[in-house]
Every structure is written in structure tokens, then in C-alpha cells.
Amino acid sequence: QYLSLCFSTNSLFGMGNPLLDISAVVDKDFLDKYTLKPNDQILAEDKHKALFEEIVKKFNVEYHAGGATQNSIKIAQWMIQKPHNVGTFFGCIGKDKFGEILKQKAVEAHIDAHYYEQEEEPTGSCAACITGDNRSLVANLAAANCYKKDKHLDLEENWKLVEKAKVYYIAGFFLTVSLESILKVAKHASENNKLFCLNLSAPFICQFFKDNLMQVMPYVDVLFGNETEAATFAEEQDFETEDIKEIAKKAQALPKVNTKRQRIVVLTQGKDETTMAHEGKVETFPVLKIDPKDMVDTNGAGDAFVGGFLSELVQEKPLDQCVRAAHYAANVIIRRAGCTFPEKPDFN
């Protein structure tokens, strides 16, 4: 009975920006031309419009199905393997070639993707500009920005899939798209004592969308972030500390609606140890070692970390096992281009 409960279809729900990643190794001149930091995530502005054409013309590009939340749900499904469709994903795409690719890739990854398809905007894309072991992401949301609660999430057949889930994950990036959709899902999780997970996702989310972020925070059971996001979050919240353990502790102690569960805060630091705050204590976990020459690119490493974590969380495994799976998945992804993975995991 327990096993069948753990492994039911649609038990992990994700909602976010489905994007097609356009990935290439670029040079410093290219970054400078578009005033990009080597390791950052930003939304495309008018000055970046030409970047998407130039990267395709000038460099050797690869196309991968992307979008942070969708990546994490796919990785979780890959770690679980069977049954298929443990992971559900909602997001908005256009009726075009890129949209068809995303649909096909979702089927191949065995996730149950239900896209809201509209014709006003083309399917979103994300330029992943790789230099060394850094990646600068420029997202042109386009269709992804058109997700509508009333047109998709509220529909009875879609909401039923939300209700089937017991673990929910939304990347902070979606805070720029549909706060009302996030709140509806977060409140459902909280009222039913299920697990709602959120990612800080980028410094600009912590900074410019902090009001939206803090409206959702009281419903967050598991908060993910990396060291840069954590530092910006701490600054914006007046935590008055730069110490990652202290930041984790203070984020853990922020107000929470469902008091039956204490918040868990998980902060990564690239090749340095991962920090986890829960139940008033802070633990650290070393990451798996990797030879720099085996690293292909770090794009998708954070998404893979979350995916690994969620794959164990949805099976109700202990937290240290969740972190181990997270480190394993991230270690696999950085050996490959984009957020792609071998046929089967080798994790136990």
C-alpha cells in the first residue's frame, strides 16, 4: 500500500515557464556587447533582441527543452524512472515549432505536461551563454508570460491534477508571470498539509519581485536557493548577515501558515558544501567531487539539484537522502550539455 501511495502518477506537480534553451559556448566580447555578467539569470530587454539571432549565426548552438521548473520535474521523473507521469507540469507555449519541440520532449521525458496554448505570443526561449564553467541566461519569456489562472489552472480537469499531487514545486521565476496561480496552488498545499516548494531562482527575483515573493513565503515548506540568491535575499530582508548558515536559519524562521510542518531551507554553493536549515538546526553536506576537465557546463545544475531532491521527497525519504540524490543529479548534469541526462540514473 505504502509503495503504491509513494509512486502514484501526478504526485509531483510543477508550474512555470516552459522555454526552449538555445545554448552555446560564447566569448567575453559577446557577453560585453550585451552587458551580461558571466554567471547570471536575467529577463531579456529590448537591447537583447538581437542577441538571439546573433548567437545562432555566430556560435555552434544546441537546442534543449528548458525552463527551470520543467527541468526539475523532468530530472525527478528520470530519477524515479517508473511509473511514468509521476511529474505533472503546467505552463504556457505558442502554437509553433518551438512549442511542438517542447511537447515532444515532455513526452520523451515521461512527464504529464499540460500546456496552455495561445497564439498571441511565440513559445519562449532562453539563451544560455556559456563561458568556462559559467553560464549567463537570458530569458525571452514570450508565451511563457501569458499563463492565465482562469484560462488553464482553474479548469476542472486541470485542477484535478493539482489535487492529485502531494509535493508542489514552482521556481521563483514564475513570480513574474502569475502570482495568483502560485498562491492558489500554495494555499491548496498548505490547507491540505502537503509540501509546497519554492526556489529563489535569481537575484532579480529577490530584489525586484520581493513583494510577490513574500506573499508566497508563508506557504513555503521547502525553500531552495544558491549562494548569490541567498545573499541578495538576506540583504533585501535586512537579515544583517552574509553568513550562509545564518541566512538559512533566518529564512527558516520567517512566518509560516501551516504550523504542522516546519520550513526547510536548502542553500547550495556550487562546488562548496550545501547548507540545510530545519527544526532549529543547520547541517552541511559536501557535494560530490568532480574533476574540472569532466565539467561540460553548469547550465541546469541547480534545476537538477532540485529535481534530485524532489524525487526522494515525493517518496517520503529522509532529508539527508534527498540531499544525496540532489548532489548526485547535479553531478550528472554538469558532465553534459544543457539539462540533459543519460538513459538511467545510477543512484541508490
UniProtKB/TrEMBL annotation:
One of its GO terms (cellular component) is nucleus. It is found in: Nucleus. Pathway: Purine metabolism; AMP biosynthesis via salvage pathway; AMP from adenosine: step 1/1. One of its GO terms (biological process) is purine nucleobase metabolic process. The keyword ATP-binding applies. GO terms for molecular function: adenosine kinase activity; ATP binding. InterPro entries: Adenokinase, Carboh/pur_kinase_PfkB_CS, PfkB_dom, Ribokinase-like. It is an enzyme of class 2 (transferase). PROSITE patterns: PFKB_KINASES_2. Keywords: ATP-binding, Kinase, Magnesium, Nucleotide-binding, Nucleus, Purine salvage, Transferase. Its main location: nucleus. The keyword Magnesium applies. Its cofactor is Mg(2+). Binds 3 Mg(2+) ions per subunit. Pfam families: PfkB. It catalyses: adenosine + ATP = AMP + ADP + H(+). Residues 33-342 form the Carbohydrate kinase PfkB domain. The active site is at residue 303. ATP dependent phosphorylation of adenosine and other related nucleoside analogs to monophosphate derivatives. This is Adenosine kinase. It comes from Dicentrarchus labrax. The lineage of its organism: Eukaryota, Metazoa, Chordata, Craniata, Vertebrata.
